[in-house]
Amino acid sequence: MTLTMKYTPSDFNPGLCDFLDASPTPYHAVASMQTLLEDNGFTQLHEADSWGQLDAGQYFVIRQASIIAFTLNGQELVSSGIRMVGAHTDSPCLKVKPKPEKVKQTLLQLGVEVYGGALLNPWFDRDLSLAGRVSYENAQGQIEQVIIDFKEAIATIPSLAIHLDREVNQNRNINPQLHLPPILAQVDDGDSLDFRALLEQQCRQQYPDINIGRVLDYEMCFYDTQKAAVIGLSADFISSARLDNLLSCYIGLQALLAADKTRPALLVCNDHEEVGSQSVSGAQGTFLQSVLQRLAMNTEAYQRMVEQSMMISADNAHAIHPNYADRHDAEHGPLLNKGPVIKTNANQRYATSSQTSAIFRQLCQQHNVPVQDFVVRTDMACGSTIGPITSSHIGVKTIDIGLPTFAMHSIRELAGSQDAVMLCKVLTAYFNQK
């Protein structure tokens, strides 16, 4: 089904919520995006194939849990450049270890490792499921991969009762090794679980037409089964897991689909931002650079194209919290539902410059979208994004922006229900900009 962009929250946010629910892992997020792209006429390219000189059209390419989608209109890229938007597909979570099976006090648990800078307290007392990618051996002895999702709540991490920790509300310390293994079932003495056999069973259930052999390995993570929702007395908020940064992925994709295709445009969504981006599919890898080089065809054309291009790095921004307002610089505290945020840092933790921020401000003004600013308190450390990595690696002028969010890196985050359509409007105009 071809999607028509509608710039109202009531039309935009249901699709956003569906995307968030369908994307419990980066692999599922890329699969969701692939479906939307194919439904809208984009053609998949493969890195192992020869591309040659691509005709005007719409294309995408996938590298593991990262995806690049772009449109070409026949213009010479050395003179037009490419308008680019970047985001990331991963979120903090609990990943299952290679030898995870544990049985304690007749309870079956799985050992987990914390991925990224997760806020751990909210993971307790949640209905958890499992999703991820599985590598298996087929009947011919070849290794293939599928993505799976148990969907149902199959696990939980119970809190310790306050009666056994009277200081819990003043000083709760979480030891990830000891306190985070989720409970999956109660078993009889001597019983256990072969986790790979469980994954094999799930693979066969989800893919009955595929000859699934022995499961060799996996990348599986737990996630909260509570669905994304628009909440609040006046439907002011979006509450969901993985808003950081699937919110930006979805907005960037919808803007690319809604663009008028009159100039070259590109969306890149990288994996592994939450752990430093240094991977084959991360922003520090070669994915974006190699795609751009193939589009330019030669080194000089590539350099000229990059000089004419621009990148908007879209990642969430810290909204000023009413209960913790002192954690913000008073003049730079973004508010929910008051528009996208320009993120600036003197030490280049964000890639924003006066040149790129001026371009973005003008775009917002031209389309009646309010714009806000975020600068971290001078006495606090600043986070970062794919913006500085991409800017330095590719050599493209870049701005870091995002939408105001509460509870970043929690198992459930909160954003404004009006902000997504405002940013989509601006990014669509950016892709169309001559």
UniProtKB/TrEMBL annotation:
UniProt GO molecular function: aminopeptidase activity
Uppermost EC category: hydrolase
InterPro entries, A to Z: Peptidase_M18 (IPR001948), Peptidase_M18_dom2 (IPR023358)
Keywords carried by this UniProt record: Aminopeptidase, Hydrolase, Metal-binding, Metalloprotease, Protease, Zinc
EC number: 3.4.11.-
Any matching Pfam family: Peptidase_M18
Cofactor(s) needed: Zn(2+)
Keyword Metal-binding on entry: yes
Family named by the database record: Belongs to the peptidase M18 family.
Protein name: M18 family aminopeptidase
Source organism per UniProt: Methylophaga thalassica
